[in-house]
Amino acid sequence: MLKKNKTTFLPGIVIPSLIFIFGVTILSVFFPNRTEYYLSVVKNILFENLNWLYVMVVTIFVFFLLFLFVSKYGNIKLGANDSKPEFSFFSWVSMLFAAGMGIGLMYFGVAEPLSHYADPAFGDNFPIQKAKDAQLYTFFHWGIHAWSIYGIVGLSLAYFTYRYRLPLSLRSCFYPILKDRVNGRAGDLVDMFALCSTFFGITTTLGFGVMQLSAGLVHVGILPESNFTYQVIIVIVIMAISILSATSGVSKGIKFLSQLNIVAAVLLMVFIVSFGPTVFLLGSFSEGLGYYINEFFNLTFTTHTYEPETKEWFFNWTILYWAWWISWSPYVGLFIAKISKGRTIREFIGAVLIIPTLFNFLWMTFFGNSATWLDQNTANGALSAVVDNADLLLFKFFEYFPLTNVISILAIFIIFIFFVTSADSGIFVMNNISTNNATNSPKWQLVFWGGMLGLLALVLLNAGGLQSLQTMTLITALPFAVIMLLFCYSLVKGLFIDNEYYTQPLSHSTNSWSGTYWRERLDKIISYHGKNDINQFLSKTVKVAFEQLAEALKGNSIIAEVKSSLEESPHHVEIKIQHENMADFIYGVQNVEKTVSDYFRSEENAPDIEHQRTYIPMTYFGDSRKGYDVQYFTKEEIISDVLKQYERYLSLSSDQKNEIFLGQNIREED
């Protein structure tokens, strides 16, 4: 008897997402030019009119993470307080780096700095200044700002997943705002958006990357020509290995390939710096890093409003990059969250922002500055002349180094593995989104997503519709940027509650407890009071205590007044000692309403409480300090507590430096 295959797919996420994915794909295949035209119009409207919004949103992400890094919240763990990281530091960094930036470094390591260097928008600058600015803008686009975008999503997901024990899903990031409603349609919409964005981003990257791989294989003579048949073979091989890696799990396939690729990339980088203009490259890295730090704030906030001649460049590079990183953030964020359990928030932010950024800077300096130096001193402009053909530019660059074929083949291997690591982690993430982080998903679902990626990438590549899909991905970035701002708000709210929970001291009223009245204490602890109960406490315990204390003070020539308001809200009782030159001493107790959580009321093994609202007697003071609950105090303990506060008041009053707080009556009369 055949066992029926089960699925963990959630229809409310998967079905609408597939309808949208196939709908966009059909338009891009059958009407590529018209679809690209209309999508480009929308994209240009967004970029030209809302570019300032992209800039401000990314700026908020950067400074928000820097704030968390230096704040007390940085010590909070992404998981239980005693949790340990699942992966070694090297494995962790290798995986988050390979998923986030890997393939882009191979594609843009030479192409971007050389493009900035050759861009007519900076044509009036001297060659040396153009080379410096080319490095600066490349650092800007691949540095802390890019990783801050990934960091916001990754940190939010990791925090709410491992600290709040929620599913590893984007909807979980809204829990402090939506509570249990995250499991409804609102949560489905967020995950649908993430699923479509991830699918489109990986599909377009796979399609364009296959073109670069194909061009490289032709350049080194492995393939006779670059045509669709060979591209099909490349896609099949990439997706087969990616599916195999994804089905073997993060801790095996993805981890191994990420480590292998980072080692290969470092070897290639060492080769370039060793056989290139070594002294120039090392010096330009130091100078470029200083230039970036010096220009950090200017780069962060600039919108080129006063420089219309560079506006088009700004839209086509900076704004496009911000949109592209945002559109990729659901995918990269989910993946790095998956591998970051057990890290502290400070460790997470430091590693995510600093380590990949420094590696990117080294890579872009050694490849990009080698290219500009060669273009000036050896190639006589031959490299900048082919800057528009980014697929082939990297391999043209290798022609100026020894062992050209060897390093070209090594580069092809790195590109190939980068594609595999991007695809396999993407498959894993898409299955995670579509199942709301189900832990027992059958492997055929991973095969399904891998097959979908490969098939649609080939269809779009053959029909010329990849550009439309890329533009669609960029358009979706802006609404997701708004969602990411809500992530920040939700994260702050969650961290505040988290910190308050773990730093909450014992109740003030328990400081002097002994075992003498433990049964009476227990009865009070497991009882919840109505408004009349607390009013009775104020009348029969607090007021009586205040009156006895006032009589004792009167015997020592100190006049104290007891006031009460038990008929009108807010119900309170207070003892007041008036002064002419100092602020009055006031110790009061008022009836305060408190809301009891629904989940506590529904708990069977907890004290019974019928109503959502309960009431407690809360102190207040003349200097507006925060009060505390005194519901467990006896009459004698109330008197003792007032005396403690009065002794504090007298001690502070005798110190001249406290006049600013305790000389209020004099200032009010003046």
UniProtKB/TrEMBL annotation:
PROSITE patterns, A to Z: BCCT
UniProt subcellular location: Cell membrane
Membrane topology reported for the UniProt record: Multi-pass membrane protein
InterPro entries in the record: BCCT_CS, BCCT_transptr
Transmembrane spans: 12-31, 51-69, 89-110, 139-162, 189-208, 228-250, 262-293, 313-336, 348-367, 400-423, 444-466, 472-492
Location (main, coarse): membrane
A Pfam family the protein falls into: BCCT
Family affiliation: Belongs to the BCCT transporter (TC 2.A.15) family.
NCBIfam families in UniProt: bcct (TIGR00842)
Protein name listed in UniProt: BCCT family transporter
Species annotation: Sphingobacterium chuzhouense
